[in-house]
Amino acid sequence: MKRREFITGTAAGAIGLMFKQPMLATDRPGADNRPNILFIMTDQQHAGMLSCTGNQWLKTPALDRLAASGIRFERAYACNPVCVPNRFSLQTGLMPSAIGMRHNGDSGSAAVTERMVEHSLGRLFKKAGYETVYGGKVHLPRKMKGVENLGYRNLTSDRRRGLAEACGEFGQHGFQNL
Length: 178
Fold this sequence. Notes:
The chain has helices at about 5-20, 60-70, 85-90, 115-120, 120-125, 165-175; strands at about 135, 155. The protein is mainly α.
């Protein structure tokens, strides 16, 4: 499956879940039955750096619980080993070559279009009625104009200090049915 097909399929599924389905006897009136989606993208983390992957030297109980109850991609590959081109690809489903980007230095001259931004992951989920929140390192092509332009609410402007606390606070109050 191609990246664009995955993002399009995920967004289409989210949009499909937005429409009301016949109510079951166990459903509460007005209940939101869409799944919560938590997408964690780490920087420079090897696939085996979780205890749930068999790493005996690490203890990652919270991530292990998320992996056990959700979906963990075991065969995912970066389209580019450099962060800005790779993050562009994750947000748009397009290869970095689509905008002439090979490395972080191309950030200012990358040919990002409004159509790419309109179909970004954050905007697709927001259109489907999801609350979209972003926390941490951004590092996107400059013409994408930040995570707010991609449909996200920025959880914190500081990607190091304060991020863990902001994520914890959001986790306590932001997720309704996790």
